[in-house]
Every structure is written in structure tokens, then in C-alpha cells.
Amino acid sequence: MSRRRALGAVLTDIRPLRESPAFRRLWFGQTISQLGQQMSVIAVAYQVYVLTESSFSVGLVGLCGLLPLVLGGLYGGALVDAFDRRLVSLWSALGLWACSGVLVLQAWADVESVGLLYGVVAVQAALFAVNNPARSAMLPRLVSAPLLPAANALSMASFNLGFTIGPLLGGVIIGWHGVEAAYTFDVITFTAALYAVVRLPSMPPAQSSGRAPGLRSVVEGLHFLKNAPNLRMTFIIDLCAMVLAQPRALFPALALTVFAGSASTLGLLQAAPAIGSLIAFAVSGWISRIHRHGVAIVIAVVAYGASVLMVGVGALSFSGGLWLAVAFLAGSGAADMISAAYRSTMLQTAAPDELRGRLQGVFIVVVAGGPRLGDFVIGLLSALTNEEWAMVIGGTLCVVGVLTATVLQRRFLTYDARTPTP
Which candidate in 276, 316, 323, 332 could, as Cys together with 307 as Cys, close a disulfide (CB 3.0–4.6 Å)? Predict the structure, then answer.
């Protein structure tokens, strides 16, 4: 019995899946659809690099989605607080499905237009910025507050399972039948996410001002954040990681030149952070018992930056150090999973329900917009130096940024989940 209790304290907490059928359907649907979505992500990066032979051009993929993501996230959050969250999620998901269809058509028609790819990515970013806050704002209605850290860990695992298998499978499928096969797979698997949302119950906002969402509604959410130092710090710390030390735009060049590999090597590098995240998730039974979320977030993001730094150091120091790079990228993914689980929980418990959609909109601007800006920053660093030094510089800046922010806002380290304060 003691051994079983010890294992239960370490292994994944799956109680949210057992206790909430709606969350279970949403989780399985999202997990399946993530496989295809991540195959599309790697296909777009691969297609852009093949057409341009430029890491800077791959970095521009992220930059093209940045402004639509910011606008979509801020306004989408206002929509989530004004209308039924299930319907907002459903309509935005249908839009994303249509974008996947455009990628299929351009690939099979052999259009070879980088501009078209950039345009589709921009529309996808705007729709994603509406869809994600809607799903996140629904979570506290689907599971009880004590299970939110475990539910967020499960959600991160869902994404990262897609990040792991999707790129690996995507690399194989691209090598077998080109990017068109990868895009087609995305369209097929996306139906699982649509089905899960259709089965959800209606979720109108708990309170509503009664007016249509607009600039004033968006400003209300930002004003609340101005007076919420703990929530604001979660955004600042994540931006240090995602803007300064996001290496994914370098993966095509690392795979095809530094490591002299192929599309399968690219899939391995793309999947490595998610593999680390899944390993961390497998032993995340302890995550609901940690109450000092601020301390946990700082430690996790410092570890993330240090891992990215070491990928660059290893590539500079060792000839053909592919597996060393994979190991450190896995470490960065493990750290990011822990940070994301606690940041999501803080936002869901410390923010009032009537503002939760708008704050989730800001959250998605940071967690999804930050990496897009980070793609541009790391691509620019690599153009000024090379891929290896770009990761060394980016990882160092991340660690310095997190420690500086923590010194300026020491109260963040005292945050206790048992008495959540924004």
C-alpha cells in the first residue's frame, strides 16, 4: 500500500479526466487534433525554408502572425466575456479548419507562394487567439478548483503529445509524400476537436455588462491587469523566455546544415521540447501539492533559458552534437510544462469570472505572440551571428531577464495558491 501511495504522489494526476466527462471529451479531441496541427506547423516551416533557404524567412512566419494574434487575443477575450463561450470556441474552430483546407489546396496545386503561406498563418493566428481564450475560460466550469493544476498539466500534455508525435510523423510523411500529405492529415484530425466542442454544454458568462464587446471592454481587462502585479509578472516572465530564447525558427537550418540531416532530423528537433514536457508530465503527480507558484515559475523559466543556452554551447563545442541538442531541448520543454501549468492556474483562480475571457486573451497574446516575436528575434540573431551563437545569446538574455524582473517584484515569490491574489 505504501508503494502504491508513493507512486500516486509522483505519477500523473488524472482525476480531472475521471471526474468530468466534458473535460475528458475536450481533452481527447484536442489531443487528436494537435497531431495534425503540429504536422502543419512543421510543414509550413519546411516549405518556407525549401522555397527561400533562409532561417530569417522562417522567422518571418512567426512575425506575420504576431499582429493578428495580438488583435485577435484582445478582442477575442472580450467576445468570450460577452457571449456563450462554447459558441465562440466552435465558430473560431471552424475558421481554423477552413485555413487548414487552404493549406491543403495550395500544396496539392503546387502554388509555391511564400506570401500565401504568410497570409494563411496570419489568419490562423487571429482565429487561434479567439479560440484558445474561449477554451481556457471554460476550464474552471468543467473541473473543480483543487484539480485545476492537474487539469492544466493534462492540457499541456495534450499539446505536447501533439508536439512530439506530430513533428516526428510530419517529418516522415513529408519525406514520403511531401507537405501536401501533412496538410491533408491536419484537416482530417481537426474534426476530433470540432466534435468535442459540439458536445460541450452551453457556457454563457456568469456576469455580463450587456453591451457589445469593443475597445472599452478590452481596456477594462487591461486596467485590471495594471493593478494585478502577480498576474502581470507571469506574463513578463514568460515573455523573457518566449521572446528572448525561442529557438524553433532555427530548427530547419540546424537540421539541414549544422547537423547535416533531413526532414526527419527537423522533426526530431521540433519534437524534442515536447518529449521533455511529456516526461515531466508523467511524473507530475506532485504538481497540485505545490502552493508557492511564484517560486516554481521563476525556477522553471530560469531552467528553460539555461537549457536553450546549453543547446548553443553544445553545438559550438561538439561536432555533430545532435543528441546533446535533443537532450537540452527536452529539458527546456520539461521546464516550460511546469511553468505553464502554474501560470495558467494562477490566471484561472486569481482572476474574476467576468474578466476571465479578456485576461485569457492577454494570456494567449503572451504565450502565443511571444514565440512569434521570438521567431523573428532569434532569426535576426542568427543572421547577425549564426544559429549556435543565437541560442547562447538568447538563453543568457532569458535568465538575466527573469532574475531582473524577480528582483524588481519580490512579492511574486510570496504568492500562495491557497489564498490567490491577482
Answer: 332
